[in-house]
Amino acid sequence: MTRRAEPRKNDQGKWLKNGAAAKSGLNRAILDKGWHQFESFLKYKAERAGKAIFKVSAYQTSQECAACSHTHPDNRISQSSFHCGICGHTANADLNAA
Ligand SMILES: [Zn+2]
What we know:
3 helices; alpha+beta; 4 strands; binds zinc ion
């Protein structure tokens, strides 16, 4: 989520603009939000409500089918579309990952 922007070169070896300044600002905003405090509050509220919380790694959640657990990069058709190559499950990519 906060990875640096990849440097890019053209055919002559000159460096191209890669949006590093914008990405740096986005990274700063994401990391400035106090995620640990949010997690603490969420745990506290869930315990009071008698609910369970599961911390899930984001690794490959955008490629894994929510219906059959098949994981493959081709499942992700576009930024917003998900289609499972095995069971045919189709959904919005963000909803499927959640
Ligand atoms: Zn599937």
